Each structure stands twice: as C-alpha cells, then as structure tokens.
C-alpha cells in the first residue's frame, strides 16, 4: 500500500485521489490557457482602438463654494401646487361622483390657499386672476425654521 492509503481510511484515500485528479485537470487547463494567451492578445490587438472619453475641465472652486453649489440647482424644475382644500371620503362616495357633484372641502371660503413645492408647504396666498388665468398672490411665506420643523414632524 502507498503511504497515503496507510495514513487515511479507504474512503478518504479515494477522495484524495479524486482531488489529485481534479488538480491535474486544473493544471492542464491553466497550462493550455497560458499557451493560448498569445492568440487571445492577437485577437484583442485586432479590435479597433478605443479613445478615452474627454470631460470638460472644471474650474477650481471659487472663494464662495456655497454660492457655486446654489447655482448648480437653480434650474432644477420643481412641482409648485396651490391647494384649495382637502377632505376624506369613503371610496363608495367617490364611485358615486358625477358631473355636477359637489365635494365639500375642509377649507373655509376666503381662507388663504396653501402653496406647496414638491408636496411641502412653503407659503400661503390668495387666489387672483391674471390674464384670464388663475394665479396666487403670496400673503405669508413659511420661514426656513418652520419648514424644517414641519419636515421633522412629517407634516
């Protein structure tokens, strides 16, 4: 018997032989890959040369970096909404709505309308007509600290 068979029970010796065979297969595959790597590089060399992308050079940050950051976002569009009022009604009532139906809202007549940006209250105002279109004249702007307080509450 060989030394390997003497050290391990028969089942473990068989497992070692399988591992040795697998290691030999891997070694052969790696040798084949390294011998054929020359042809792979020839194929790669035949591919068209890619030029790296060029990017505009950004100028160094000015003395007021906060102003620069603000300028980057000034042209981002946001959704501005004027809310007339709200109400909660059951789905069965919604399904019964038809042309001419009236839905009562929680806002009182003459009360300022809420102005929201992306769903967050930023101001209140009164409805006006401008060139045959509705508009809103702002009467009260929510302070930044109040906006932060409302955001933290989730309202």
UniProtKB/TrEMBL annotation:
Sequence segments annotated as region (Disordered): 1-60
Membrane topology category: Peripheral membrane protein
Subcellular location: Cell membrane
Keyword presence, Membrane: yes
Residue stretches in coiled coil: none
Biased composition (Low complexity): 21-42, 51-60
Assigned keywords, A-Z: Cell membrane, Cell projection, Chemotaxis, Cilium, Flagellar rotation, Flagellum, Membrane
GO cellular component: bacterial-type flagellum basal body; plasma membrane
Domain Flagellar motor switch protein FliN-like C-terminal, chain residue ranges per copy: 72-142
GO biological process, one term: bacterial-type flagellum-dependent cell motility
GO molecular function, one term: cytoskeletal motor activity
Keyword Kinase set for record: no
PANTHER family to which the protein is assigned, alphabetical: FLAGELLAR MOTOR SWITCH PROTEIN FLIN, PTHR43484
Family: Belongs to the FliN/MopA/SpaO family.
Protein name according to UniProt: Flagellar motor switch protein FliN
